[in-house]
Design a protein that fits this description.
Length: about 375
């Protein structure tokens, strides 16, 4: 059915119970029962599609997964307790000792730790490339198995060219994995550009209200099968309650993300004209170096705006101290606008040189623009900058 995005996000629903409920109930059950020995045997043999045990599947989790599969244009999916569980399990299921990962340089902090601290324990090495590099052949080894990227990246808001990377991955037979957390499927569907798998932290814009943690991997059926088998035996499953919340969240994702982006665009334009701001990075500003790529692969610019306050580390910290309404918090993609100063917090352990490498300059502030009235958001940023 060629249903519109909004309709799928609302109307995909698990089967009704005997109560004919309108909204899907919460199925808090660890396990499921069988009619007889034959029913049980056939269910375990996967001759029937039945829920057996909530570590494997559950009606609420299935509903959330099914919606995300449809919204991303994927074949299949599996939902996880967190975004990091999804990312870790995807690699752990698909890679063998000796395999090599090619990844964009700017990846989520815990993903970076996974690549640099833990995967080498199993003899899996990662090579990083910069967002605008196009000569990637030189990084390939006979063991390169996956190409991994985020776009837009956190917190430098670089935009990588998915079409180019999709073709590169196909040519070299790499499994192309995209962390689509910053864009959501409403803004960008990496599978259209050749991604084999898309991973998400559902904790961010998918929940969108700062309530629950969640993650998901969607993509090719054969790859998801491997991920599912790994997950069903290692136990990073999403809870039915979180799935219920997240499935409800998806019903409003289109209107929420649309408004987030509208607000973020206005905030970015305001910042670009403020004398105490030396640089603004937002994919849909004409001044963004990858504006054309962003326009080609994203519906709108997203809700994260990064900007450089004049005066370095101290100016960045001062700006945060003057903020009145916006929250100082590590999360993003919430209804509430959040500001952070990466150089003195999330990335303070890196040297200045390492920070500059990934585009985290001393005065860089990351703003996750929320759904408050945009005039109030701008007013708060303005009084802190002035
Ligand atoms: C938050 C985040 C993650 C990790 O998700 P959790 O749900 O916190 O485990 C992964 N990738 C990106 C881009 C994120 O922003």
């Amino acid at each position: 059915m060629s249903e519109h995005f909004e309709t799928s996000a609302i109307r995909i629903q698990s089967e009704r119970s005997q109560f004919y409920e309108h909204s899907t109930p919460l199925y808090l059950t660890s396990s499921f029962v069988f009619q007889d020995a034959e029913d049980m045997r056939a269910s375990f043999a996967e001759e029937k599609q039945k829920n057996l045990y909530s570590r494997f599947s559950n009606p609420n989790v299935n509903e959330f997964t099914e919606k995300m599969v449809k919204l991303e244009g994927a074949e299949d999916g599996y939902s996880f307790a967190t975004g990091m569980a999804a990312i870790y399990s995807t690699f752990a299921a698909l890679l063998n000792s000796g395999d090599h990962i090619l990844s964009c340089q700017s990846v989520f902090g815990s993903t970076h730790t996974l690549f640099t601290k833990y995967f080498p324990k199993w003899n899996i090495e990662t090579t990083y490339f910069k967002a605008d590099e196009t000569d990637l052949e030189k990084y390939l080894t006979p063991n390169t198995k996956t190409l991994y990227v985020e776009t837009p990246t956190n917190p430098a808001i670089e935009v990588l060219d998915l079409e180019f990377l999709g073709k590169f991955a196909k040519k070299h037979n790499l499994i192309f994995i995209v962390d689509n957390c910053f864009a959501t499927p409403y803004l960008q569907q990496p599978i259209k550009f050749g991604a084999d798998l898309v991973v998400h932290s559902a904790t961010k814009l998918i929940d969108g209200q700062g309530r629950v943690l969640g993650g998901i991997a969607v993509g090719r059926k054969n790859l998801i099968r491997e991920i599912y088998l790994f997950a069903r035996n290692t136990g990073p499953a999403m809870s039915p309650f979180n799935a219920w919340v997240l499935s409800k969240s998806l019903e409003t994702i289109a209107v929420r993300v649309e408004k987030h982006c509208e607000n973020a665009q206005k905030v970015a334009e305001f910042l670009e004209n403020h004398p105490n701001v030396s640089l603004v990075k937002y994919p849909f500003l004409k001044s963004h170096p990858n504006y054309e790529t962003a326009k080609n692969q994203m519906k709108l610019g997203g809700n994260i705006v990064a900007f450089e306050v004049k005066g370095g580390i101290e100016a960045g910290r001062n700006f945060l101290n003057k903020i009145k309404m916006c929250s100082l918090s590590a999360n993003l993609g919430d209804t509430r606008t959040i500001v952070t100063h990466p150089a003195s917090t999330t990335h303070s352990k890196l040297s200045e040189e390492e920070r500059n490498e990934v585009g985290i300059t001393a005065g860089l502030v990351r703003c996750s623009v929320g759904l408050e009235h945009v005039d109030d958001i701008i007013e708060d940023l303005k009084q802190a900058l002035d």
